[in-house]
Amino acid sequence: MAEARPPIVIAGPPMRTGGTEQHMLHVLPALVQRGFDITAVLLERGGALEEPLCAGGVRILTPTAPLRRPLRTLAQAWLIRRAVRETDAQVLHAYLSEPYLAATLAGVLLGRERPALVYGRRSLAFYKATQKLGAYAETWAHTRAAVLLGNSTSVAAELSAESGHPERVALIHNGIPLEGAVSAAERAAARATFGLPAEALVLTMVANFHSYKGHADLLAALDAMQHRLPQPWRLLLPGRDGGVLGDVRAQITALGLGGNIVLPGEWPGSRAPYAAADIGLLASHTEGFSNSVIEGMAAGLPMVITAVGGNLDALEKGISGLFVPAHAPGELAAAILHLAADAPLRARIGAAACARATARFALGACVDQYEALWRGLITRRSGPPAGWLSA
Question: CA-CA distance, 39 to 79, in Å (whole number)?
């Protein structure tokens, strides 16, 4: 007789290209392979990553028509309730704030039938400064969650402080598939994909275009040092427009950088932007834990990143990358120039970055921790295994 597959219900965002969505695409099909029966209830239909998530064995439910808050939150809550009842799921895992509120409402509707609720926060809660009602609702939801799950030490510490229950807080760092070293052939093909000169010094920052990702700071840094960089040079900026791409284009034009900047648009998951580059960057003002940082590390890039949030978990300062303050174009420029002028240093830091990504941020280890968490909750252990905050 075949062993039963434990049902899990996921509450999540639309599967557009972004860090949380990429994480779900990496982790959930791997957990299907581990024997879980996963149903994902998403806020909205569509998104470039929805089809591959389905292909990975995850059943997807969404509202039938686009809705605005609070109607879409209520619609998601109703679908979550239905999915839990149909599957008899004992674990409900929510990613991001709005799906978390929908999952909590579903738990209220389910009453005594409600499953153990896990909240996976993927960023620092900077959004609470302008969303007072949402902040209050999250605090209420924390009282009903079995586990508050952070993806970095900073996020986990924030959840502990908010909830007042550190014993219910767990930490699972992001994990990524590891593809090995970038070959000369892969590098050449990646450069050809983006139209980059074979001999250019290539910088890349893979980030959707939100103001907090620091594109404006990076462009200001490049403006200050562009004539001191090895020639030719290019900056590759893949990402989806989160509302500021027009401003970024205007800044590029105003600074006269158009001939050096490549904007390929939304980039769905391959490591070509990293394989094409010599230096990886992330200039964000706030960060939960960035997939793009560890993806760049895994590809052997020396990374220059801001010393904020989960970025501090990723690198060893001066060994596997360089830290700079946020909102500091001058210091960002100095760090880039330091690496640009020293190819042996880039190679040494890139090798250390690859080794660290392989040792600490492999997908298999991340999936192991998810499996342990979910199976523990299914057997009615209260909260996460001891010691996860120090993992």
Answer: 11
Note the pLDDT of residue 385.
56
Number of Cβ within 10 Å of residue 140's Cβ equals: 11
Looking at residue 23, its pLDDT comes to: 95
Q: How far apart are CA 172 and CA 323, in angstroms?
A: 23
The number of angstroms, rounded, from the C-alpha of 194 to the middle of its chain's C-alpha atoms is 23
Residue listed under structure tokens 């990723």: 314
Whether residue 237 contacts residue 215, with contact meaning beta carbons closer than 8 Å, is answered with yes
What was the pLDDT predicted at 389?
A: 52
From the list 350, 342, 345, 344, the residue with the least C-alpha distance to 229 is 342
How does pLDDT run across 186-208, given as a tens digit for each residue? 999 999 999 999 999 999 999 99
0.90 surpassed by pTM: yes
Q: Name 284's Cβ contacts closer than 8 Å, sequence gap at least 6.
A: 207, 212, 213, 214, 290, 305, 306, 308, 311, 326
Q: How many residues does the chain have?
A: 391
Q: What are the backbone angles phi and psi of residue 322, rounded to the nearest 5°?
A: -120, 140
Q: What Rg value do the Cα atoms of the chain yield, rounded?
A: 21
What's the farthest any 2 CA atoms get from each other in the chain? Answer: 70
Name the pLDDT band for 52 (thresholds 50, 70, 90): very high
At residue 230, φ and ψ (nearest 5 deg) are -55, 145
CB 256 within 8 A of CB 224: no
Least confident span in 60-74, 91-105, 138-152: 60-74
CA 207, CA 36: separation in Å to the nearest integer? 31
Determine the 3-state secondary structure of 237 from DSSP: coil
- Non-local (6+) Cβ contacts of 231 within 8 A are none
pLDDT digit string, tens, across residues 82-126? 999 999 999 999 999 999 999 999 999 999 889 999 999 999 987
pLDDT higher than 80, residue 75: yes
Separation of alpha carbons 117 and 163, rounded Å: 14
